[in-house]
Design goal:
This protein is α+β, with helices and mostly antiparallel strands and 236 residues long. It has one domain: Lambda Exonuclease, Chain A (Alpha-Beta Complex). Helix content is 42%, strand content 19%. A hairpin with a 5-residue loop joins β1 and β2. It is globular. The mean pLDDT is 96.
């Protein structure tokens, strides 16, 4: 298979179903997007706008997430019932202290694009990144119904640790990765430089596995209905 770059979502897709990966990332087929996924993307944009407004100054009203709700919901075509959920989750994040310590915040939706030793690129975004050397703090908003599982092995947390250190080499001690599962609670895992070293090696092995896949096999699951090949794949 072709591999333009790695990301947590691409690895997750490949592990879920090789054929779905082939459809999305080799054939360029569009995946069906669940309305709640659209709502989640809109919520992230609301907090990105409010965070950047606070960091860059400007009108105080722009600092508040509620200022951006109507504009973002319209742009993302968020359903009315999901708009209510967005506001509920937005208020939870504010209540939990999303805007604390803005003095050490380096940005929202912070993009990273790094290369491993074998040349494999790793690309993604960090919802919010705080740096107070020698430590870093990654905050990731989650709008799903379920809590995260196995944070130590989750590729998102592992890649965030690598990316934060790549962007800010002054992070020489622990990185706190916090998943704010807004329907439940905050889940947190600590990652260190040793983890980053080990995970870079593992990422290169994952990249080799994807590149060496010559015959993508389907893996049926509850997610099949959102696959670009749904209705065509015999395994679904």
């Amino acid at each position: 298979m072709k591999l333009q770059h790695l990301s947590a979502s691409r690895i997750r897709t490949f592990e879920q179903c090789e054929l779905k990966y082939h459809a999305k990332y080799e054939l360029g087929m569009k995946e069906k997007v669940h309305p709640l996924t659209i709502m989640g993307s809109a919520l992230h944009k609301v907090f990105e706008n409010a965070t950047l407004a606070r960091l860059n100054g400007g009108d105080a009203e722009h600092h508040e997430p509620r200022f951006w709700v109507d504009e973002v919901c319209k742009k993302y075509h968020v359903l009315s019932e999901n708009r209510r959920l967005l506001i509920e989750l937005m208020n939870s994040a504010i209540k939990w202290g999303y805007f604390r310590r803005m003095d050490i915040c380096k940005g929202a939706e912070v993009r990273f694009n790094l290369a491993l030793e074998d040349g494999t690129k790793v690309v993604g975004f960090i919802d919010r990144l705080d740096v107070e050397p020698p430590r870093g703090d990654v905050l990731d908003l989650k709008t799903g119904k379920s809590l995260m599982e196995n944070l130590e092995k989750d590729w998102q947390s592992r890649i965030y640790n690598i990316a934060a250190r790549h962007l800010y080499p002054e992070i020489t001690e622990g990185v706190s990765i916090s998943f704010w599962v807004l329907r439940h609670r905050v889940q947190r895992v600590w990652k260190h430089q040793l983890h980053a070293n080990q995970d870079c090696e593992e990422l290169m092995r994952v990249a080799d596995k994807i590149r060496s896949c010559k015959d993508a096999k389907p893996t049926p699951s509850a997610l099949c209905r959102w696959c670009p090949l749904y209705g065509e794949c015999e395994a679904a």
